[in-house]
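Quick one: examine this chain and its backbone structure tokens and tell me how the chain folds. Here goes:
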Amino acid sequence: MNTAQFTPAGTLTAEDLGRIHLIGVGGVGMSGLARLFLTRGLPVSGSELRDWPSLAGMRALGGTVHSRHEASNLDGVDTVVYSSAIPQDHLEMVEARRRGLRVLHRSEALAAAMTGRRTVAVAGTHGKTTTTSMVTMVLQQAGVDPSFVIGGEISEVGSGAHHGTGEHFVVEADESDRSFLIYRPYLSVITNVEADHLNTYGDLATLEAAFAEFARLTDPEGFIVTCADDPGGRRLAETLRAEGRRVHTYGEAPDADLRLRDVVSSAQGVRFLAEIDGRSLGEIRLPMPGRHMGLNSASAVLTAHLLGLPVEAAEAALGTFPGVRRRFERKGVADGVLVYDEYAYHPTSMTLALQTLREVAGDGRLIVVFQPYRLYRTRELQAEIAAALGIADELVLLEVFGPGELRAPGEGSAALVEAVPLPADRKVFVDAWDDVPVEVARRARPGDVVVTMGAPPISLLGDQLLDALTARTGDATGVGPAVDPDGSATTAG
């Protein structure tokens, strides 16, 4: 079990960090933090072996990127920042300690950046990246220019971090390694609480206790927001209210403080009527489908209300919400086949995403290309993951992505594919990455929807699938006009 301990947020500020070096700066979380520091005018460097797209933006802002991990990267550095993916024996970590440099976990460095701001922290087993993005856009629409750091990039904005001039700081709070326990939010949002990251917590009860501890760190003058429709969120709200804490809930449940009524989801989007304490707030619309998206947006509306911001700002921001990269992201269309990318890997979020994609598919078929994320999760939740994948019409399954994990005999995707309740000819385990595009092109027909889903590397497959679909038609562009399930003409991207 992971028992990492982090230093609670204190009086350390970003400016106290001096010259900052981030190990593994190419990842979404680390590159976002680098961008935040750079836009605050701080000197930043980082090391990264892969040339991630985010690195070009870092260089454009004046950051230094080293393409190798070596001791000399730390010359002139005051603070070294690492993520949970970086082992303690990494050569730059060892060198930083040998030199006596300040060494901070990513969350500790982020907490320093939040010092003096009114923090809105969004946590939850799933949905937190989208919800954090929605809250951020609502605050931007209200004109308060928040700072933010999100575990994904807001589509069209092209960034997961920003240094704002306002008093608010919106952050996605990660529970996977307990690091969310260092934050001291003014307003905390907990989208749901379900079994996950049990390699860290051991069992659901310990995980629920950690979420309760996170909520208790909220400013007594602030607010705690939970989902009344989620059993874990409801239990958490009952516990906290019994302690006299200020908890506000959202959902379709009759006793929710902000209640969703008449929820309608289709391929064109989701809409619902919102009311708070029995008072109508009008209709909320999102240009993307899914009841779960409606719930996420409701939390953003409730957050705006509690912060004293006009509901009109929430309506306007959500009505044009562009989505988040890797969250129901449309990659393009080729030979009449729509291709999406989706980050979901937990069975609950997988189920919600696939049900929504089935709405989009309409009369077409849904083909899922799935890469499980972590062996322990695949092993412990195999039945639930298999049931979610059973929503698909066709399944192409890759091997589990589990860096640093040792696979025992019989573990992994070969076992998972057998558990998926689909006929044998409609599911296949493909061990070689380069064989996947060929397999998808062989199975997909015009009118189908294909989604790449799961662990981070699979996001790279979308363009390869479009190329493979294009190659079978001889169409040089492969991403030309097509027809969505609603019959409207569309273009890719």
User: Anything to note?
Assistant: The longest strand covers residues 258-266. DSSP finds 16 helices and 23 strands in the chain. The longest helix spans residues 291-306.
